[in-house]
Automatic annotation (TrEMBL):
Its EC number is 2.7.1.6. Residues 133-218 form the GHMP kinase N-terminal domain. Residues 413-484 form the GHMP kinase C-terminal domain. This is Galactokinase. Belongs to the GHMP kinase family. GalK subfamily. Keywords: ATP-binding, Carbohydrate metabolism, Galactose metabolism, Kinase, Lipid biosynthesis, Lipid metabolism, Nucleotide-binding, Steroid biosynthesis, Steroid metabolism, Sterol biosynthesis, Sterol metabolism, Transferase. InterPro entries: Galactokinase, Galactokinase_CS, GalKase_N, GHMP_kinase_C_dom, GHMP_kinase_C_sf, GHMP_kinase_N_dom, GHMP_knse_ATP-bd_CS, Mevalonate/galactokinase. One of its GO terms (biological process) is sterol biosynthetic process. It catalyses: alpha-D-galactose + ATP = alpha-D-galactose 1-phosphate + ADP + H(+). The lineage of its organism: Eukaryota, Fungi, Dikarya, Ascomycota, Pezizomycotina. Residues 33-80 form the Galactokinase N-terminal domain. It comes from the Eukaryota.
Amino acid sequence: MAGNVPVTQSLDDIYPQDALDIQRKRWSKLLSSFKDAYGRPAEFVSRSPGRVNLIGEHIDYSLYEVIPMAVTADVLLAVAVSPANGTPTVRIANVQSDKFATRSFTLAQDGGVDIDAKSHEWTNYFKSGLRGATELLKKHAVKGIGQLNIDILADGTVPAGGGLSSSAAFVCASALAVMRAHGQETVDKKELVELAVVSERAVGVNSGGMDQAASVFSQRGSALYVGFQPELSARTIEFPQTHTPLTFVIAQSFVAADKHVTAPVCYNLRVVECTLAARVLASICGLKDLPDDSSPLGFSLRSFHDSYFKKKGAVGDDVKDFRSQLDQLVHIVDNYLPQEEGYTRQQISDLIGTSVDELEKRYMTKFPVRADTFKLRQRAMHVFGEAVRVLKFMDLLQSPTPSNEQESEELLKGLGGLLNDTQESCRDVYECSCPELDELCKLARSAGAYGSRLTGAGWGGCSVHLVPQAKVEAVKKAWEEKYYKKHFPDMDAEKLQDAIVVSKPGSGSTLFQVAGRESL
Ligand code: ATP
Ligand code: GLA
Ligand code: MG
């Protein structure tokens, strides 16, 4: 998946045929609004999509593999640049100006910018992309940093807080825009992902790397297998040919999951719980002086995993061995982390041989959390179990093409069963679902889905369902009648249409050159 972000002058390279008409209109409107707002044409558009995660939920920050794919919905940033003959200034507006107010801010001489993670401010997502890109530009010794005025108009169609990673789409598009604004027409995909993963954390959510990888690396028509250890890697996965084509349907719960607001008791807390579970397990198993890894808090369950088996003399990374290692780890958790009720700060400090003060300073200061107990047992159980499900899912996707309808049906049921198991684990063990997501899953299964689960961070947001094509309409109808009309009786037809998307895997980040084009 190595290589540069594609540069194009054609929307055909970005969108599937059936989306082109709508996209042409949208892009034309964006470019003409840009001219109206800033009195000059946009030079380029930087574009990055949202993603749906098929399987591997809440395990990317423990550095286990995940299988997401990009969706068609995306963030577009139309941009024009000019030399700053004074203080470099960024002006940024949004086509949804009622929701996202126009802002302008100045840059420090070294191109730096302040980000107040305490305020929930949309332009923080741009600033974090800008900050990451500036670091990369410096690394490449690019000239002209902190000497530009940049005008931007944003247009995002990924529902914000809807579990399809509008945030990563925004940060990746922003970082890409800043690179291009500084004359970088060739942007290395891996470098872009790495900078976006780290820089998105500046908004206050200590997230993993799945979303940015999916947004940048994805290719139309394929899902993506993303790994984080020993380093970031991604490869495309073709879907098998089944008698009824694999159809993934995405359904919004319309329960807004604002990760920034709930982070101290939801997302960031889970990151702390997983990290502390790894620390405690390492300590119990006598693993000392382990180096930091690339996970958000510097030590992950995956690093514990690798060090544990290395100490035991395991060699090679054969998939069969890996799966059996994960099964063994489930037993270790069962034996050594028995407390269902969770662990207090004092208990954890005693187990890893540190003070409560040190523990808080090291793991709970930069991204504060609010909790008296930490459910190490349940979180580790979910992570190891989910990592096994990803391997099984991958095996099924790569199994030989089914030769008849029955084999095909078995394959689809196998994939669906894994999605259902993930949902159960997210609901009961990781506690990141909510009643509305559970309800959407239950309704879909009763109407014929092979498998259903939440996707993304959870606690609201989106769900994903593997549905036989012949049953898509029945599933939609069940949701409309028994979920949307029940919970949102005033919902208009347009919103209802947006609620459910039959998703085809979309393409990743792209730079679009506007200059010199007569029409789209
Ligand atoms: P998840 O991370 O669960 O997949 P998500 O990425 O959509 O879902 P958040 O990580 O909470 O949810 O990010 C949502 C935030 O991203 C919004 O509150 C907003 O600040 C910013 N954002 C997303 N889309 C846009 C947009 N079109 N215009 C401006 N800001 C946006
Ligand atoms: C959010 C984060 C990702 C990942 C998912 C859960 O989308 O941004 O890094 O952790 O939640 O799988
Ligand atoms: Mg997000």
